[in-house]
DNA sequence: GTTAGCACTCTTTTAATTCGAGTGCTAATT
DNA sequence: AATTAGCACTCGAATTAAAAGAGTGCTAAC
């Protein structure tokens, strides 16, 4: 049996997808035949396209129309057929400029990349901030702000900070507050946010002795703060680029916004490589006519965050994918550099 | 000259708008004539409707269609014609339950109202949080979080808290940090966020003496934090209810999202009463086929915040407006109660 | 002042027709 | 054996025509 997908068929498939990405119209055999590096007649192309359709890479909207790519078609195109446009030095410079190297936290850095990507691709972008796995608690503080009102503060080594306003039943004495600060410093400082479980909190509550009654609500607050750190939220940038699209309904966008955390979780499954592309309903991604490209950001080999775009199926993958890869690559470099930096100087 | 808008015409106008709000279709004379409390023939109604059209309250999409309300028509309807459905005791109870009376800050309270309103009306709601005019700075702190990294913290008397991560050129000595804390406490504690201008900051910088060089960046950060408090952001709740609408384009929504701060500012102009309704492009409000209802929340008679909804022109005004008025009324009560509370106990 | 009657207007719907792009197949060509 | 020209065929899109229907404005009668 001969090779089902010889060089010419691959070329034709690539050409069909290239054309479809540009025009959005079904592509006919004539259009392909007129391309300079295709040297066969429309009839031959028709035969090949029929085969490509049987193999599931192309489909016809109706009997007498040209072909459009199927999901499998796009998949093959992205994996093997398209020739990714290498990033020029000039583009590199531009992308580097967009990255906020002065950013005080890794999260701010990744957000700047997200903004840049959104503007350059005219797509919405999604960011998953740097995972709390890599940060430990630096400080937990309680600050009185009014009658029976206290602000709880939790700061991590990565510079992230969260707060929560607590209303207590009683006012705290200075002594109680001092105890709390000391207690937190002794027991939580240096603890990974990731490790801070309910159990640890309960143990701490139990071991508080006479302070238990008054300070338990604060500990509850601490637990909530830690929880907040763990649930790294997904953030959407350039929402306008989604809203402006005519080919998707607002309801789809709304559904995506509500499920974006879970969608992102699916996209970051270990079984995928560092770059993963999903279409339409792949793995719970649900915006019709759309594709989502997500690249992982690693630190010490472990998943630390991610950056991606959501755009139409007809996306200029050959341009966008290199952009994403370059940006996430740079970020990965920068956040590991940072680490060295800290390591060198703190010891 | 006879009264241009006699009782019957007003009744007919109200009936047309009532019907249009329900069906969304142009309303004809027959439909109106069939209503129980209209005792005249279609022909009479046609005559009246022609007058109402000349007066600018109704219009015809085309020659042989029924009438639909114009902006002026809606305006008159809302101001004078509709019979606002009084809120039943049961509804009051339900609304009260939705309000988070345990909310630690006024902002959290108003957010809870916004959520409830969004769900009850199936519209998007907009909130403008409680103005910083009513809060003073309680605390400014700097907390080291890593090499040359510091978190600046600003807390206000209303329990609001903002932070900013600063990366400095040098590490601070304990002495420098102590000075900063003391300096901030002495000079900024009790200062209204509103009053904290560039000038004050500059004066503080100038008066810092030997600490000037090292601490100026922190002061800059303080200024930025204060700025952040002043620019009370507008927050949209129930965005899905906007997205799900078929009669507006995503581009319109995007434009609104980008301009929402300014739109809200226009809506809160002093020349309007406490409740203001804008249509389509009134005063810079730009979503087609939509109306925006905003009610002011006051404290000591001064504008403190606001709550509103954005829905279709065909909104059930008679139901929604009382809801908004009730909620903002309750909030107004609650935040002034709070004040008394504080006043009583702090003296 | 109100109303019945009616001609008129203009959109919506439906159907019929045409047009054209693109295909698949067959037979000829290389 | 692979490629290609030629051609009949399919099916959506665009065009046109006709009919239906809702609602009006006007006139004349009540």
Overview of this protein structure:
- 2 copies of one chain form a homodimer.
- Chain A has 347 residues and is of the alpha+beta class.
- Chain A folds into 3 domains: 2-81, Winged helix-like DNA-binding domain superfamily/Winged helix DNA-binding domain (Arc Repressor Mutant, subunit A, Orthogonal Bundle), CATH 1.10.10; 89-130 and 232-346, GAF domain (Beta-Lactamase); 134-230, Enolase-like, domain 1, CATH 3.30.390.60.
- Chain A is built from 12 helices and 10 strands.
- A 5-stranded antiparallel sheet of chain A has the order 7-3-10-9-8, with helices on both faces. A 3-stranded antiparallel sheet of chain A has the order 4-5-6. A two-stranded antiparallel sheet of chain A has the order 1-2.
- In chain A, helix 8 (198-206) packs antiparallel against helix 9.
- At the A-B interface, strand 4, strand 5, strand 6, helix 10 and helix 11 of A face strand 4, strand 5, strand 6, helix 10 and helix 11 of B.
- The structure holds a DNA duplex (30 and 30 nucleotides).
List the helices and strands and how they pair.
Two copies of one chain form a homodimer.
Chain A: H1 7-23, H2 29-33, H3 42-54, E1 58-59, E2 68-69, H4 71-81, H5 89-98, H6 106-121, E3 124-128, E4 137-146, E5 149-156, E6 161-167, H7 174-188, H8 198-206, H9 212-230, E7 234-237, H10 239-243, H11 250-267, E8 275-279, E9 290-299, E10 302-312, H12 317-346
Antiparallel strand pairs in A: 1-2, 3-7, 3-10, 4-5, 5-6, 8-9, 9-10
The first copy, chain A, binds a DNA duplex (30 and 30 nucleotides) through residues 26, 28-30, 40-44, 46-47, 49-50, 60-66.
């Amino acid at each position: 049996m001969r090779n089902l997908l010889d060089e010419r068929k691959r070329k034709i498939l690539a050409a069909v997808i290239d054309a479809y990405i540009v025009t959005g119209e079904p592509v006919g055999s004539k259009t392909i035949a007129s391309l300079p590096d295709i040297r066969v007649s429309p009839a031959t192309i028709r035969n090949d396209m029929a085969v490509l359709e049987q193999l599931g890479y192309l489909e016809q909207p109706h009997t007498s129309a040209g072909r459009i790519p199927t999901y499998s078609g796009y998949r093959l195109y992205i994996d093997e057929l398209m020739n990714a446009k290498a990033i020029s030095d000039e583009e590199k410079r531009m992308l580097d400029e967009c990255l906020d190297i002065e950013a005080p936290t890794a999260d701010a850095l990744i957000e700047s990349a997200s903004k840049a990507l959104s503007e350059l691709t005219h797509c919405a972008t999604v960011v998953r901030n740097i995972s709390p796995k890599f940060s430990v608690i630096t400080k937990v503080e309680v600050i009185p702000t009014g009658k029976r009102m206290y602000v709880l503060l939790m700061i991590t080594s990565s510079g992230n900070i969260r707060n929560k306003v607590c209303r207590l039943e009683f006012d705290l004495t200075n002594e109680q507050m001092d105890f709390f600060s000391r207690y937190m410093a002794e027991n939580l400082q240096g603890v990974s946010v990731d490790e801070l479980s309910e159990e640890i909190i309960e143990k701490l509550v139990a071991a508080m002795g006479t302070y238990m009654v008054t300070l338990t609500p604060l500990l509850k607050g601490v637990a909530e703060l830690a929880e907040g750190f763990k649930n790294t939220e997904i953030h959407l940038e350039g929402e306008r680029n989604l809203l402006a699209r005519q080919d998707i309904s607002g309801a789809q966008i709304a559904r995506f916004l509500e499920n974006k955390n879970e969608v992102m979780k699916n996209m970051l499954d270990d079984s995928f490589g560092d770059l993963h592309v999903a279409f339409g309903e792949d793995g719970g991604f649900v915006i019709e006519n759309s594709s989502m490209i997500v690249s992982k950001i690693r630190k010490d080999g472990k998943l630390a965050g991610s950056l991606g775009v959501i755009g139409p199926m007809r996306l200029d993958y050959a341009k966008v994918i290199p952009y994403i890869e370059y940006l996430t690559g740079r970020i990965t470099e920068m956040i590991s550099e940072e680490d060295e930096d800290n390591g060198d100087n703190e010891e």
